[in-house]
Amino acid sequence: MGQITMTTEFWVQMIVYAVSIGSFAGVILTKIGYLEKKMDKHNELVERMATVEQTCKSAHKRLDDIDK
Asked: What would the pLDDT profile of 40-49 be if each residue is shown by its tens digit?
């Protein structure tokens, strides 16, 4: 009987470990997904600002040409 109880305890412990590891992995993957979304927003903003800067330079050049 002692052998059966030890085996059962072992498997219960393994299941608890597996659930713990699974939930930890889920939390990590959720945070990674959140960070990826933030990075996408940041990269989009950087691209938009580069476009604005280029447009601004072009406008200043045209204004300088008009002043001459």
From this structure: 999 999 999 9
